[in-house]
């Protein structure tokens, strides 16, 4: 113990000399107190001067499990917005996934959350100042940018994104982002008017071109009373999952360089401004296919009818209501290498939509004259120059599954059909599992039916993407 104490005292004196030569004002007594305090309480050694936190920012040292060495590291930049409180939960969600988190708070973020809270939750020192002598004489912003595997910005405010798009570096957060050679994931959060402002649209597009990944924002209620729209920060679990995806060791990406176009969900066909015709499709299968295609390296455009699902990370999602809007978005998204039409598109719409809410007039029930919707799958299958080389349709049937799907196959002109039984007893509509049969054209010109076992919709999606990947590999370019 005595020899250990002498060694520690010796270290304290050396630390003092280092600090004095670096111009740091900490006293030798303070340094000795910290080092001896650690020794007496049996705590691991205090890191050297550049890492030593000021008392206000000190994290409780080594509380809870220490992340395994070799675990992923995230520098989390917390921007100044009301969603900053959710960034504290994000720290926990990342740590649950065995990710080490180092937090950086902008000046505005500190109006909403404290460095102490971020330190306590991350169990690491929290950084706030570009000109902090405790870290900056060691090029702190460069270290924070480099000593990590991913930089997450949550909430990413409109101002922070504008600065990033322009390459500003006037505080610690922007200096880190400019010095970064690691992937960056933004979780934007702002008022819908700010999100939709042309300036923000330009900045978002520029950042996407610069290779910056984005998760959210989601649609929903705003902090401002009575305001709603797209601008809510993605939920911490969504951000943590997106971060995990980026941190995962690179998996084979058989669809890299391919553009996959997917439709999903139901359509809503308006009767009047308040009523519509809909169906029970949840969109889960189409969303799972979009996520699986994205994980396989494809650039994915997902055109979705109204659903209650979060947008899959890294996917370009376009939200529509009616079949005609869906067709317009599909046509706008071409060209594509693969198109998967999983949407339950309404076959009919009301011939003349009421401009005002239909009223009970006493003249009897109003007749609803229906007219046929465009068949998106058939339209795209029949294209000449811009027809995707692989077009896949779905056949959701409640009876004579294979016979009906085979007839549909011929009628629609697509290359494959995924047939599934959606009769209420199966629980497929809105459920999490699916039993599908893949119909392809056999060498003899007949139809080959490959029946898959009951699987979750994610497993069906992964199996379909595998089939697509092997088809692409075996087809001439
Ligand atoms: O004719 P049915 O609706 O059963 O056909 C199902 C397939 O056709 C699905 O792939 C669906 O996405 C697609 N479809 C379409 N446009 C329509 C109707 C169906 O793309 N109007």
Notes on the structure:
With 477 residues, this protein is an alpha/beta fold. It has three domains: 2-52; 73-247, Flavin prenyltransferase-like (Rossmann fold); 259-352 and 367-474, CoaB-like (Rossmann fold), CATH 3.40.50. It has 16 helices and 21 strands. The chain has helices at 2-21, 28-40, 84-96, 115-122, 133-136, 140-146, 158-166, 172-179, 192-196, 198-209, 236-247, 284-295, 323-333, 376-381, 401-412, 457-474; strands at residues 73-78, 100-105, 150-156, 184-188, 213-214, 218-221, 228-232, 259-264, 269-270, 276-277, 299-304, 316-319, 338-341, 348-350, 370-372, 390-397, 416-421, 433-434, 436-441, 447-451, 455-456. Strands 12-11-8-13-16-17-19-20 form an eight-stranded mixed sheet, with helices on both faces. Strands 2-1-3-4-5 form a five-stranded parallel sheet, with helices on both faces. Helix 1 (2-21) packs antiparallel against helix 2, helix 3 packs across helix 11 (236-247) and helix 12 (284-295) packs across helix 16 (457-474). It is globular and about 80 Å long. It starts with a helix and ends with a helix. Mean pLDDT is 85; it is low at 1-6 and 20-69. Bound molecules: cytidine-5'-monophosphate (C5P).
Please give the order of strands in the largest beta sheet.
12-11-8-13-16-17-19-20
The CATH class label of the largest domain is: Alpha Beta
Task: Give the structural class.
Answer: alpha/beta
Question: Which descriptor suits the 3D outline?
Answer: globular
Bound molecules: cytidine-5'-monophosphate
Level-2 CATH architecture of the largest domain: 3-Layer(aba) Sandwich
Oligomer description: single chain
Number of self-contained structural domains: 3
Low-pLDDT segments? 1-6, 20-69
Q: CATH topology of the largest domain, what is it called?
A: Rossmann fold
Strand content: 15-25%
* Number of helical regions: 16
Residues in helix, %: 25-40%
Measured distance between first and last alpha carbons: 73 Å
Main pleated sheet:
8 strands, mixed
Write down how many β-strands occur, each being a DSSP E stretch of 2 or more residues. Answer: 21
